[in-house]
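Quick one, tokens below:
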């Protein structure tokens, strides 16, 4: 595998795509008073916090709650925990958020957390959708849909987590 990295999104592009996703979430859930943003640790949660901030700026009359999900992504069965009780999402719209959608396994595990909780609606949001789905999960809101070969890797760097300037790289 090559060590060559190609920049696919810079800081400004990530900001613009985040704003666009926030507006799409609002448009799709215009009549909702409360929306729960569920960020998958680590970068998905950072991205969810950013979306929460944008949403609060453009729709201050609505409530945007934040929930962090920690998932054992390498396990073959669901092992996950949350920073708040799942009941906070009961009878609400939730948006399951991650940085990159690759096979769909992580989002499937995130969905699995809410199977016993009655929800109004569940949607997914990702910064980059790679379109290599092995699970029947797709992004409702995405910043960039990218066709890659399986050997390629997409890496998102977010300042709050990686201590580097925001960027998305293909390697």
């Amino acid at each position: 595998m090559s060590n060559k990295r190609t920049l696919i999104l810079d800081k400004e592009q990530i900001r613009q795509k985040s704003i666009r996703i926030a507006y799409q979430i609002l448009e799709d859930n215009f009549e909702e008073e409360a929306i729960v943003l569920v960020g998958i640790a680590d970068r998905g949660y950072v991205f969810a916090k950013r979306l929460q901030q944008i949403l609060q700026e453009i729709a201050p009359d609505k409530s945007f709650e934040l929930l962090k999900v920690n998932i054992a992504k390498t396990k073959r069965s669901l092992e996950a925990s949350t920073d708040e009780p799942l009941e906070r999402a009961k009878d609400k719209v939730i948006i399951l958020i991650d940085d990159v959608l690759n096979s769909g396994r992580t989002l499937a595990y995130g969905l699995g957390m809410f199977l016993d909780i009655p929800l109004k609606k569940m949607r997914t949001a990702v910064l980059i959708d790679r379109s290599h789905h092995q699970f029947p999960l797709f992004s409702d809101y995405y910043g960039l849909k990218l066709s890659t070969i399986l050997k390629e890797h997409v890496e998102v760097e977010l300042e709050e987590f990686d201590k580097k300037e925001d960027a998305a790289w293909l390697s």
